[in-house]
Each structure stands twice: as C-alpha cells, then as structure tokens.
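Subject: design request, 178 residues
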C-alpha cells in the first residue's frame, strides 16, 4: 500500500519547506476508491435531474384533458414509460443508498464496482424511459409511423453514445496498454 510522499522542498515555490506535489500514480487503493465513488455520485446527481424532469412531465400528462383521448396503445406507452422512469430513479439512487448504508465500510472498492454496474443499468432504464417519452409525444403530434421511425433513431443514438462508444473506447484503451 503506497502513501503520498512526505512534504519536501518545492523547487518552484522558492520556499524550502513547501510541500512538493505528489508524483503521478501515488494513489493508494483506498484513496482511489474514495475518488471514484465521489465521481460516480456526482455523475448520478446529473442523471437524477433528467429522471426528475421526465417523471414530472409524465405525471402532468395524466392530468391533462387530452389524456382521455389517448388510444389504448398510447396509454400503454405512457404507463410503461412512467414505470421505467420510476424504476430508473430507484436504480440510479441505489449507489447513494449503498454509500449511506455502508458508510465507513472497509470494502469501498467493491462498493464502487457494484455502484458502477448499477449505474449502467440505471442508464439503460433512463434511456428506455426517455425513448418512451419521445415515442408518446411524437405519436400524439405526428402519428404512429413517423413516431416509431424517429424514436428508433433516438434509441440508436442512446445505444451508440451511452453504451457502444464507452465500450469501444475501453476496448481501444485496453489494446494500447503494453
């Protein structure tokens, strides 16, 4: 287990007692796990905002006068999308609950790994909910055929940007390592 280097003279500061910056790669596993968990929780805060916006939109839709005019298929899309949004909110909040429930637990690296996997599932659920919301709105505005076509493109964009791109970057980076 490595620790940060002790403070020493910093040639750039002009003071002999100023601490020098730690060398690259000094992080020990505990510090790395702490940093990764903080980064993950910050990312989840951003996602939770998106979930809340979609959820608020969906809640409002059910109480509009036109809601009763929706076809059975549109109401099915609505209910499915609403449920996907609720489950996405629960899944994306799970790493926060893990962090709180296991506060000061010695296995923080494992908590980070589990939380990162859970966040991936949450992204999938959020992408599905957003896609469902697009389908519902476009079906009402444009009709079923254009709605399905445009929604398929939206789903492909989510799949590419949120899943295929990170996988490709990880794969390329893994190949580059000696």
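Subject: RE: design request

Done. Sequence follows.
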């Amino acid at each position: 287990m490595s620790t940060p280097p002790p403070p020493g003279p910093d040639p750039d500061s002009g003071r002999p007692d100023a601490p020098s910056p730690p060398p690259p790669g000094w992080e020990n596993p505990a510090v790395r796990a702490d940093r990764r968990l903080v980064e993950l929780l910050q990312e989840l805060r951003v996602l939770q905002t998106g979930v809340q916006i979609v959820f608020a939109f969906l809640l409002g839709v059910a109480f509009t006068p036109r809601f009763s005019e929706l076809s059975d298929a549109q109401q099915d899309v609505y209910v499915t999308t609403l449920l996907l949004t609720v489950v996405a909110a629960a899944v994306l909040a799970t790493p926060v609950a893990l962090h709180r429930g296991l506060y000061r637990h010695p296995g923080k690296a494992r908590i980070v790994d589990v939380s990162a996997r859970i966040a991936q599932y949450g992204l999938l659920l959020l992408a599905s909910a957003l896609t469902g919301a697009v389908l519902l709105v476009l079906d009402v505005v444009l009709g079923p055929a254009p709605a399905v076509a445009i929604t398929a493109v939206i789903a492909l964009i989510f799949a590419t940007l949120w899943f295929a791109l990170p996988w490709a970057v990880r794969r390329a980076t893994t190949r580059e390592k000696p």
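The mean pLDDT is 84.
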